[in-house]
UniProtKB/TrEMBL annotation:
<dbReference type="InterPro" id="IPR029058">
    <property type="entry name" value="AB_hydrolase_fold"/>
</dbReference>
<dbReference type="GO" id="GO:0006508">
    <property type="term" value="P:proteolysis"/>
</dbReference>
<keyword id="KW-0378">Hydrolase</keyword>
<dbReference type="GO" id="GO:0004185">
    <property type="term" value="F:serine-type carboxypeptidase activity"/>
</dbReference>
<dbReference type="InterPro" id="IPR018202">
    <property type="entry name" value="Ser_caboxypep_ser_AS"/>
</dbReference>
<keyword id="KW-0121">Carboxypeptidase</keyword>
<keyword id="KW-0645">Protease</keyword>
<dbReference type="Pfam" id="PF00450">
    <property type="entry name" value="Peptidase_S10"/>
</dbReference>
<protein>
    <recommendedName>
        <fullName>Carboxypeptidase</fullName>
        <ecNumber>3.4.16.-</ecNumber>
    </recommendedName>
</protein>
<keyword id="KW-0732">Signal</keyword>
<feature type="signal peptide">
    <location>
        <begin position="1"/>
        <end position="19"/>
    </location>
</feature>
<comment type="similarity">
    <text>Belongs to the peptidase S10 family.</text>
</comment>
<dbReference type="InterPro" id="IPR001563">
    <property type="entry name" value="Peptidase_S10"/>
</dbReference>
């Protein structure tokens, strides 16, 4: 009797796994035929208050390199409370939702180089199922626990990815999510046999406690470089339709829409219409019918944000041979350059200053040579790299997709084979200093290059 029961249990488990590992066969409103495999469904993770949570995932396998050997990249949007699936359909996925709610091909999709996984986190974000309303779950520690649990469930559903090179990338509040998740992976001993973490990358990340950080000097530096008075931006009420300046990119217009889903000035009309299509939700295996929004404003409003910076976690990752790439669009007023630069100013710059100065990228098209992407600086022997991006604002990968693909390629190419783990150590001293320390030379250099570019157009 026992063998029969065991067989029945195995069949049930296999059926459940197959249901969770659900291949997306066909998507409505898709304007081309994909040459890659994709899966979507739910990953189960435990909550801090007991019980389990189901987070929605969407995996797009590589289109231009062998998916069986290509690395795995986890992409995370920030907020807190914004959907990574929205990042797939608006930022770096193989599909881009247009204003007609159709999916066009993205020529700079990240799955050209890797298998890319998108997870909506925490509970209630995007297509993830909401959990019981519990303030104790809306904080960074609980979100880290959810993300790690979901990741472990992913590896149980997709064992072929175990031990394969793994990277985490994202933007904005993912500047908190990602270092904490990387630290949890390292501290938990889940790598390299299971989660073989090789690198992390964050664009325009919030790495500090926002309530204790004075951004005004850096915001004024950006507006001065553009010839804009600071009060022209400061007086904007982002909840009002009178808003005219885009704080996420001062050189781009502000799209006015009540459907922005908590992301002011962003055109999400096509995304919202696409995700509202019940045929789309069925194709993705969504449980029930979800009223999707790019950002969940209730979660954003109730989220208990971290009260200290993540420099220790970044140093720990770098000291454990995890490559760290931090990049920042120069036209972002909401989270200006100083947010990242001032954090890194606490670390000693590499003494040989190798690689410091301009960094280059390619348009990846016939007839184009190399172009200057911005300026860069390295720390801890090149284990931490910082780059600025000219002509981009808050979402570098969305606004400069060719640069975004170059950043991913450089992250994947970072050579950690000769890396020897070292004891992580922060310079002695107090916490992150507030205000502008007389103006970073790197920040001033960026603004000068930015201004010269704008004057040339």
């Amino acid at each position: 009797m026992r063998p029969v029961l065991t067989l029945a249990l195995c069949l049930c488990c296999c059926a459940l796994a197959e249901c969770q590992r659900r291949r997306v066969e066909e998507l409505p409103r898709l304007l081309f035929r994909p040459n890659f495999t994709q899966y979507s469904g739910y990953l189960t993770s435990s909550s801090g208050s007991g019980g389990s949570r189901r987070l929605f995932y969407w995996l797009v396998e590589s289109s231009h390199v062998d998916a069986a050997t290509a690395p795995l990249v986890l992409w995370m949007n920030g907020g807190p409370g914004c959907s990574s699936v929205g990042g797939l359909l608006m930022t770096n996925g193989p599909f881009l939702a247009n204003d007609r709610a159709e999916l066009e091909r993205n020529d700079f999709a990240w799955n050209r180089l890797a298998n890319v996984l998108y997870i909506d986190s925490p509970s209630g974000v995007g297509l993830s199922e909401p959990g019981p309303t519990d303030p104790s779950e809306l904080n960074d520690n609980a979100t880290t626990r959810l993300n790690l649990g979901a990741l472990l469930h992913f590896y149980s559903l997709f064992p072929e990815y175990r031990g394969r090179a793994f990277y985490i990338a994202g933007e904005s509040y993912a500047g908190i999510y990602i270092p904490l998740l990387a630290s949890a992976i390292i501290d938990g001993g889940h790598w390299p046999s299971l989660i073989n973490l090789k690198g992390i990358a964050v664009g325009n990340g919030l790495h500090v406690a926002i309530n204790d950080f004075d951004m005004s000097p850096y915001r004024e530096a950006v507006t001065k470089a553009l010839g804009i008075r600071s009060d022209e931006v400061n007086l904007i009420d982002l909840s009002s339709e009178a808003a005219q300046v885009n704080p996420y990119n001062l050189a781009q217009p502000c799209f006015l829409s009540s459907e922005s889903g908590g992301y002011p000035c962003s055109n999400t009309t096509g995304l919202s219409s696409f995700m509202a299509d019940i045929r789309v939700q069925r194709a993705l295996g969504v449980s029930g019918q979800v009223n999707y929004s790019l950002c969940n404003v209730l979660i954003t409003g109730h989220y208990q944000r971290r009260n200290k910076d993540v420099l220790q976690q970044l140093v720990t990752a770098a000291s454990s041979c995890v490559s760290v790439l931090l990049y920042h669009g120069a036209l972002d007023w909401m989270l200006p350059l100083g947010c990242t630069q001032q954090l890194l100013d606490r670390l000693p710059v590499d003494p040989l200053r190798e690689g410091e100065g301009a960094w280059l990228y390619s348009m990846r098209a016939p007839g184009f040579g190399l172009q200057i992407g911005g300026v860069q600086r390295s720390y801890l022997g090149g284990r931490i790299r910082y780059r600025t991006v000219i002509g981009a604002g808050h979402s570098v990968v969305t606004e400069r997709p060719e640069i975004g693909l170059q950043l991913l390629q450089d992250l994947l190419a970072a050579d950690a084979k000769a890396c020897t783990p070292i004891e992580p150590e922060l310079p002695s001293g107090a916490s992150l200093p507030l205000g502008c320390p007389g103006g970073s030379a790197l920040t001033l250099q960026v603004l000068l290059v930015l201004l010269s570019q704008l004057m040339s157009h």
